[in-house]
Amino acid sequence: MISLRRATIRDLERLLELVEAFYTEDQHTFDSAHCRAALVPLLEADTAGCVWLTEGVAGYVIVTWGYSLESGGREALIDEIYIAEKNRGYGTLVMQSLLPLLREHGAKVLFLETELHNHRARRFYERIGLTADDSIWMAMQLT
After folding, report:
1. Using CA atoms, how far apart are residues 44 and 139, in angstroms rounded to an integer?
2. I need a surface site. Which of 14, 32, 73, 87 has the fewest CB within 10 A?
3. What's the pTM value of the predicted model, to 2 decimals?
4. Residue 34: which region, alpha, beta or left (left: phi > 0; alpha: psi -120 to 50)?
5. Contact by Cβ (8 Å): 8, 40
6. Mind listing the pLDDT tens digit for each residue in 8-62?
7. Are 32 and 93 in contact (CB under 8 A)?
8. Does domain 3-127 have CATH number 3.30.43.10?
């Protein structure tokens, strides 16, 4: 059985361990202080987003909120999703648990980003109903 539990500040150290495992696996640089500073506001209130821990398998989901007239209101962005055990159907179960939670939080549209090289992830997201759109994300570092 897989379920999601809203993470709190008491989960911070466990979350940092999971984030580090994800970053190692996905070949991102892990900076504990940087991640800690970004996680604390999400764990203390849900104004910027929410963090859920997976129960039944090690993992987490971080969702941040946006807002768009085009989307009709609140948008949900899966910023990070990590499940330690791969290819066992846990991702599908996590997403099935997550979607109703996002609707409860008033989200109208779900977005996520994948690395260009991550074909496996894109195939998974397509299987559960997400589609690629024509938008191209552009970014500028502000700090």
Report:
1. 27
2. 87
3. 0.91
4. alpha
5. no
6. 999 999 999 999 999 999 889 999 999 999 999 999 999 999 999 999 999 999 9
7. no
8. no
Side chain identity, residue 117: H
Residues contacting 128, CB < 8 A, separation 6+? 92, 95
> How many whole angstroms separate alpha carbon 91 and alpha carbon 97?
10
Closest CA to 14 of 69, 60, 66, 48: 60
Model confidence over 82-132: pLDDT tens digits?
999 988 989 999 999 999 999 999 999 999 988 888 898 899 999 999 998
Contacts of 101 (CB under 8 A, 6+ apart): 4, 50, 52
Backbone angles phi, psi at 9, to 5 degrees: -60, -25
Are the beta carbons of 4 and 55 closer than 8 angstroms? yes
d(CA 115, CA 95): 19
Residue whose tokens read 């990070």 = 80
Q: Where are the domains of the chain?
A: 3-127
